[in-house]
Design goal:
The complex is a heterodimer.
Chain A (H helix, E strand, L loop, with lengths): L3 H19 L8 H33 L5 H25 L8 H32 L5 H16 L2 H6 L2 H37 L9
Helix pairs in contact in A: 2-3, 3-4, 5-7
Chain B lengths: L1 H6 L5 E7 L8 E6 L9 E9 L6 E8 L4 E4 L7 E10 L2 E4 L3 E5 L10 H23 L8 H16 L3 E6 L6 H20 L3 E2 L5 H17 L18 H15 L3 E7 L3 H11 L3 E6 L5 H7 L2 E4 L1 H10 L3 H38 L3 H14 L3
Parallel strand pairs in B: 9-10, 9-11, 11-12, 12-13
Antiparallel strand pairs in B: 1-2, 2-5, 3-4, 3-6, 6-7, 6-8
Helix pairs in contact in B: 2-10, 3-4, 4-5, 4-9, 6-7, 9-10, 10-11
Classes of the chains: A mainly alpha, B alpha/beta.
């Protein structure tokens, strides 16, 4: 029963949603949106699970003085400060995102710059990954190096200043070989998703039931 | 304004109102031929008026700017009769079309716009089911997937180095099919880790995925006969902030220095930040994603990459039961059909264009356009 009931629920829900995709008539027409709302409600409650996991994990780390426990202290202080400021802003200003709210200040002055900093790191990582990827070790790597060079130069004004043909070749590479490969991968991915969904609906794929 | 008054505005002609096809009801479509007065600079657009009797009264239900000859009234009550008229509006003047109706909106039982999707879904499902049946009778060939074959070596390497294994689902949710596919890879990784007695760390972006990952790892450790090695504290929730998650995982990588990193799931801009940090600590990295935009980053930074459909094939590859292998072969046949269709369409279109240029016959080209358009409808 422990396996059969979830498999039956998966089968019925899967078949209903597939049918609903083709039948606009009520009550099937908006079934997908309704299920999505149910999922959002359930997912909202699972935040408590996440919260429990996060706090318990770091409290244990501090309690046993495991290596890096200082980071756990910083995390818990930041977490509870954000939570308290969020609730305070909600009660006092009706919304945590009110321009006068301390939570809004925390968001714009701390969270946003931290997110931007992480995103900015990408520029350095692109440089280091490109350095390794573009080494001309064999024919395929050399082709990659040449085409990447053309595309990069063709996308900036200096490329056109060097030779007016560079943007044209760059566009050709992006519109034909690149697009063909991308579409090939996408088609395979979509077909894979259909076959996988069929396996899930028919109960062949049961990994999620462990 | 003087010009408009002198010649008079001409109303939109051929007004038609009909129940919107292939919808869930509550909608009427109104179509008209553009007013000849649209050429005047003073002409602004069309007001759509609705009434419940032919004599009125009429109230405005919508407005469209000039150049457009269709409007959908999505505020109708199914089963009720409505009458419509379209009013051409110019600066300081307006002119109404004749009243059309009655029209009654209703819900349809089949969305004809999705017939193409239905046919292809049916065909692909048929191929999959036929090949599942065939796979039960004979052994079918699956090509090697190096990324999946490398799992054992990667886990072994971590064990030899005395370092943990890190596994990430990226930003995927449990409702994403790719996350389900990733769970079967995690199951294999966890089983190997348990056999070798290696620590497995799984930081999560989604609490639901975390719960599924905990159960998967727990079951794999139990099946491997090492339930004592399972540590729930190694499979934790980090945050649902994209770059917060990236920072958290990077921190774990730098502190724990894993010997192997698995990036299996749905990734966005954080993919390279994670993979390059993994590379910086000398970890062997096996990535897999269906996010086409992130694949180049993984290919540049990782040792092995599962590209798109290879991720979905993982469960069948790792558990080669007839029904799993059969579904993969069915997928291949569908792919072959699509490739044949693309080649056939390319030839058809080319011959159509050549015939149109050389002999002035557009029949083949028109048929080709209708064929291609049939695929583009679907929403």
């Amino acid at each position: 029963m422990k396996r059969e009931v979830p498999l039956a629920i998966t089968f019925i829900t899967g078949v209903l949603l597939v049918v609903a995709f083709f039948v606009p008539h009520p009550p099937l027409g908006d079934l997908q949106q309704r299920f999505q709302i149910w999922y959002s409600i359930v997912a909202g409650f699972t935040f408590l699970l996440g919260l429990d996991s996060l706090v318990k994990h770091h409290l244990k780390k501090i309690q046993h003085r495991r290596s890096g426990w200082g980071f756990s202290v910083a995390l818990l202080i930041s977490f509870f400060t954000t939570l308290i400021l969020g609730f305070y802003s909600w009660f006092v200003f009706s919304s945590p995102y009110d321009l006068r709210a301390p939570f809004q200040w925390l968001y714009t002055s701390v969270i946003l710059p931290l997110q931007a900093t992480m995103f900015a790191l990408l520029a350095f990582f692109i440089a280091s990954a490109a350095y390794r990827a573009f080494r001309a070790r064999n024919l395929a790597a050399s082709l990659l190096l040449v085409s990447a060079g053309i595309v990069m130069l063709g996308r900036v004004p200096i490329g056109k200043a060097i030779w007016s043909g560079l943007p044209v070749i760059s566009d050709w590479i992006m519109n034909y070989p690149q697009m063909a490969a991308k579409r090939g991968i996408l088609m395979g991915t979509y077909l894979g998703a259909i076959a996988m969904s069929l396996r899930i609906i028919l109960g062949m794929e049961r990994t999620y039931l462990t | 304004m003087l010009w408009v008054i002198i010649i008079g505005l001409l109303p939109p002609g051929g007004v038609k109102a009909f129940d919107t096809p292939s919808d869930g009801g509550g909608s009427v479509t109104i179509r008209w031929e553009l007013s000849p007065s649209e050429t005047l600079s003073q002409f602004l657009g069309y007001r759509i008026l609705r009434g419940e009797s032919e004599a009125g009264p009429f109230e405005e239900v919508g407005y469209v700017i000039k150049g457009r000859g269709e409007y959908q009234d999505r505020s109708t009550e199914d089963g009720k009769s409505y009458y419509y008229l379209v009013v051409g509006v110019a600066v300081g003047d307006s002119v109404a079309s004749s009243v059309v109706g009655p029209v009654i909106s209703s819900a349809q039982w089949f969305n004809a716009n999705r017939l193409n999707v239905l046919i292809f879904t049916f065909l692909i499902s048929l191929f999959v089911l036929l090949y599942i049946r065939r796979a039960k009778r004979e052994r079918l060939f699956i090509r090697k997937i190096p990324g999946l074959d490398a799992i054992e070596d990667a886990v072994g390497r971590s064990t030899e180095m005395g370092r943990p294994i890190l596994y990430s689902f990226g930003l995927g949710l449990l409702s994403d099919v790719v996350t389900i596919a990733s769970l079967s890879i995690l199951s294999r990784v966890a089983k190997k880790a348990a056999e070798y007695g290696t620590r497995l760390i799984v930081p999560n972006y989604d609490p639901l995925v975390m719960t599924a990952a905990q159960e998967t790892v727990k079951q794999a450790f139990t099946e491997a006969g090492r339930p004592d090695l399972y540590n729930e504290g190694d499979i934790t929730f980090l945050t649902q902030d994209q770059f917060g998650y990236a920072a958290g995982v990077d921190g774990i990588i730098v502190r724990e220095k894993p010997g192997t990193c698995f990036w299996q799931g749905y990734f966005f801009a954080e993919s390279l930040i994670l993979a390059e940090t993994g590379h910086s600590v000398g970890a062997i990295q096996i990535a897999g994603t269906i996010a086409v935009t992130q694949l180049p980053f993984f290919i540049a930074a990782c040792d092995y990459v599962l590209i798109g459909e290879e991720m979905y094939a993982a469960s069948a590859y790792l558990r080669p039961e007839p029904q799993m292998v059969g579904s993969l072969k069915g997928e291949d046949i569908a792919k072959a059909l699509i490739m044949a269709l693309i080649i056939f369409s390319a030839l058809w279109g080319t011959v159509g264009v050549l015939l149109n240029q050389w002999m002035g016959s557009s029949t083949l080209l028109d048929a080709f356009h209708s064929f291609v358009n049939w695929f583009t409808v679907g929403e």
